[in-house]
Amino acid sequence: MVDPGVGGVPNCFLGVTLGFLRQVQQERSAVTVDMMEYQRSLVQEIESRLEAKCETLAHIFAIDENDMVKFIIEEVEREEAVLLEDLYSMDRKFVEHYNVLEQILGVLIKFVKDLKLQHQHQYNELKKTWLCKSYQTKNAKLRFVSKS
After folding, report:
1. GO biological process: what's one of them (predicted)?
2. Where are the domains of the chain?
3. Which residues contact 1 (CB under 8 A, 6 or more apart)?
4. Which residues pair with 13 in a beta bridge?
């Protein structure tokens, strides 16, 4: 069984889990053991795990202040580097998105110009047809007036 480290794991006390207790119970059930002996072995196991955790905690807090300050500075520098990398990454993504939007805008402007030219061409064709019909009508009126 692996020691879960400082803080322990959920649903266990000092790393003693229900599974461990059942395993000990099954090992002990083969030989009839009185309750006092069982409690002693359990207390010894709990004490050894508690001592290991206390030593781990004492070692963590035994670091002198200079090492702690260095550690904190290094961690802040690592976080700063990560944040700068995120910023640069977001800047690159922004530039990519901006370029795509510029391309889309260029396509839309070209589309609108083409559509305007198409409508202008249709308008010019309609106006030409109207002018031709108007000219033909006036020409017919003039011939009629000149014959009369």
Report:
1. spindle assembly
2. 1-62
3. 15, 17, 20
4. 16
